[in-house]
Each structure stands twice: as structure tokens, then as C-alpha cells.
Design a protein that fits this description.
The structure holds 2 protein chains of 2 kinds.
Chain A lengths: L2 H60 L34 E6 L9 E5 L3 H5 L4 E3 L10 E6 L20 E5 L3 E13 L21 E9 L6 E14 L6 H5 L3
Parallel strand pairs in A: 2-3, 4-7
Antiparallel strand pairs in A: 1-2, 1-5, 3-4, 5-6, 6-8, 7-8
Chain B lengths: L1 H7 L4 H27 L13
């Protein structure tokens, strides 16, 4: 008679311990879920907040001289297009911001910095748009190839699929505007490096045109393919002569 | 686990609540500052370049 209550108490203690252990596992799983949710918040929202701030600072740090305005009305002056050989900068050192990109089609997007290199840690995740090492510089004969995030990290190329043939892509260096127009878009495998060849799609060919290529991920939130936009130089203009009409038509 | 932490927090209930909120905020801040940035490159999305 005396043994039975003792045995049941032991069994009770054991099942209590089991329930307590189960409770801890449950709490750990809930915690893991909350941490994963936190990762999504960080990735989808916070990297944009930080990225936009850092990229705006990178643009401001360039301290580009504003294009001249009319002394009478303070209205912007339209730059005179030039079609002779444009000035071409030498390739800067890694992670140096040397140019900006403005796309009138992307109304409301800020001016984005373009920096040297395409690794994520020092360029794409912090400075936004990166210039592929060894590809042409803006205005040069060859292919000025740049990469940027389409989602997260301020997503400079988020609206790339809105681009239509003939849309202007305006690149600015300290002294020069380079106005490219979109000539084609394509979706390729990530391994397809021919899109950034001097003649896009024809590796090894000798370039005669001044091209631009944008690369970003596709589909959004995936890395299975790449969305590619090609363009060619329409004209260039010294910044001292005014602002490209494409930027003025878009409302500045 | 959370019960154990709660029982080991000092002070009356309002103080415990304040400490608990501070602990949660510290964990979130540590995640945003160090843990998530370290995990991000390991995630199978977000690559934008060709030729890797």
C-alpha cells in the first residue's frame, strides 16, 4: 500500500520534467520563428533604409558642381548635345564612387551613385550600383557594365522592368553628361558573361559602339536568372553647358 | 525558459517588465547590427552580377 503513492509520485515528477522540457523546446521554436521574422524585416525594410541613407551620402560626397542655370530666370539651361569623342575617365580604385545614374522613367527615384567593383560587401550592399572591373568607363568605346540590387539594399534597379526601348539612361561624372538610350532587354542565365562583353553578346568581337549594360537579379527575390538592359550612347555634353533635356522633361 | 528568466529578474513587476523590454531590444539590435548582416550573404537570393 505504501509503495503505490510513491511510484505514482515518481511517475508524476517524470512527466512534469518531460512537459517542462517540451515547453522549453516550444519556446525555443517560437523564438526561432520570431528571429526569422526579424531577418525578413531587416532584409526587406532595414537594408533599404540604411542603403538609401548611405547612397545619398555617397552622391553628396561627390560634391559635383551643379549644372549652370540661366542668370535671368534661374531656369536650367539645356545642354548642347555633342557627338564627337567624349572625355573618358580612367578606371578608379576599388569602391570609389565616380559617377551618378539618373533614369527619367523611374520618376521619384533618387540620384544613384555608381562605384567601382561589383562585390557585395564593399560595393553593391552599401554603395548601390557597381561598375564591373575591366569594362569600359562611361563614354568609352566598349561596354560600360554596371550591376545593382533589384530588391533590398535600397534596390537601385528595382524598376528595371519598366524600362522601354528608347528610354534615356543619364550618367554623370564630375564634368560630363553621358546620355544613353535603351536598345534591348533580355533575361539570361547567371553564368552568361557575354552580356558584359565589349560588344554585348559577342565576346571577343572588337567594339565600335559606346554601350551601357545594366545587370540585376530576376525574378525578383531570386537569383536563378539575370535581367539585362543594353543601351548605346546617344550623345554627351559638358556639365558646364547645362542639363540634358531628358532630365528637364522629366521635371528635374 | 522565459519563465525561468522572468523569475530571475530582480525587482517588482514594473521593473521586471522594463528590464525584459530592454533585453528584447538588445537582442533585436544585436541581430540587426551583426547577426543578420553576417547571414545575408549566405542566403540563396540577391545576386545581381553575371559570371559567378
Amino acid at each position: 500500500m505504501t509503495g503505490t503513492p510513491g511510484r505514482s509520485a515518481t511517475r508524476g515528477r517524470a512527466s512534469n520534467a518531460a512537459y517542462a522540457g517540451l515547453g522549453v523546446v516550444g519556446e525555443l521554436l517560437i523564438t526561432l520563428g520570431l528571429l526569422l521574422l526579424g531577418f525578413l524585416v531587416w532584409q526587406l525594410w532595414w537594408t533599404d533604409v540604411i542603403g538609401n541613407r548611405e547612397q545619398a551620402q555617397a552622391v553628396a560626397a561627390l560634391a559635383f558642381t551643379p549644372a549652370p542655370t540661366s542668370s535671368a530666370s534661374a531656369a536650367p539651361v539645356v545642354a548642347t548635345p555633342r557627338h564627337d569623342d567624349p572625355p573618358v575617365l580612367a578606371e578608379p580604385s576599388h569602391a570609389t564612387t565616380f559617377a551618378t545614374l539618373q533614369v527619367p522613367r523611374w520618376t521619384g527615384e533618387p540620384i544613384r551613385p555608381i562605384s567601382q567593383g561589383t562585390d557585395r560587401q564593399t560595393v553593391l550592399d552599401v554603395l548601390g550600383i557597381g561598375h564591373y572591373d575591366g569594362t569600359a568607363m562611361p563614354g568609352a568605346i566598349g561596354n560600360f557594365a554596371v550591376a545593382g540590387h533589384r530588391t533590398t539594399f535600397a534596390k537601385p534597379f528595382n524598376r528595371i522592368a519598366e524600362l522601354q526601348l528608347g528610354d534615356p539612361l543619364v550618367v554623370r561624372t564630375a564634368d560630363t553628361w553621358y546620355v544613353y538610350t535603351v536598345t534591348s532587354t533580355q533575361i539570361v542565365r547567371p553564368s552568361d558573361v557575354s552580356v558584359i562583353a565589349p560588344v554585348p553578346g559577342e565576346p571577343g568581337a572588337t567594339p565600335t559602339e559606346r554601350s551601357i549594360t545594366l545587370t540585376t537579379c530576376h525574378p525578383m527575390f531570386s537569383a536563378t536568372q539575370r535581367y539585362i538592359v543594353h543601351g548605346t550612347l546617344a550623345y554627351w555634353a559638358p556639365v558646364s553647358s547645362g542639363t540634358p533635356v531628358e532630365l528637364l522633361a522629366a521635371g528635374g | 525558459m522565459y519563465g525561468w528568466i522572468w523569475r530571475h529578474l530582480p525587482g517588482p513587476t514594473p521593473v521586471r517588465v522594463a528590464i525584459a523590454v530592454a533585453l528584447v531590444a538588445a537582442v533585436v539590435a544585436a541581430c540587426f547590427a551583426w547577426v543578420y548582416p553576417a547571414l545575408a550573404p549566405l542566403m540563396p537570393f540577391n545576386n545581381t552580377t553575371v559570371g559567378e
